[in-house]
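Section 3.1: Structural characterization of target chains.
Under the original work plan, the team committed to producing a structural model for every single-chain target entering the pipeline before any wet-lab resources were allocated. The record below documents one such target. The sequence was received from the expression subgroup and is listed exactly as submitted; it comprises 151 residues.
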Amino acid sequence: MEEKIAVVLGSKSDYEKLKEHFNIFADLNIPYRMEIISAHRHPDKLRAFCKKIEKEGFLVVIACAGMSAALPAVVASYINIPVIGVAMKGGILDGLDALLSITSIPKGLGIVCSGIGESAFINAIIFSLQIISLIDRRYLEKLKQLKEKFK
């Protein structure tokens, strides 16, 4: 299987909060690509990454960011594949500011937000597998295994 899911994190601290959940990909043998790129500090690098993954045939992007959480919307502005935003805990409002930022993007970008924090990241992985399994039925069994894990 080739990589179909890209995960973009806005900062190293986001990775620290989510790192134990990246084992979901390994446990289910799901290939993915992960990058840490700030939408505010490295917009050119983010744009290049987005164009590259779209050209390479990725099907879904999970974009995790806290505070102003511009990352998911900026990613969606560069590509035409589904983007799932994950609001990260932290900051003055402990993730609520990020959630509101992601869910308040201007019309025309078409992203979804799975919530705040670690559970939202896991749900974003599940939603990614639901999208991909529509195209590649091999992912359906992985999706069922993951959902069974949380019953």
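The chain has a mean pLDDT of 95.
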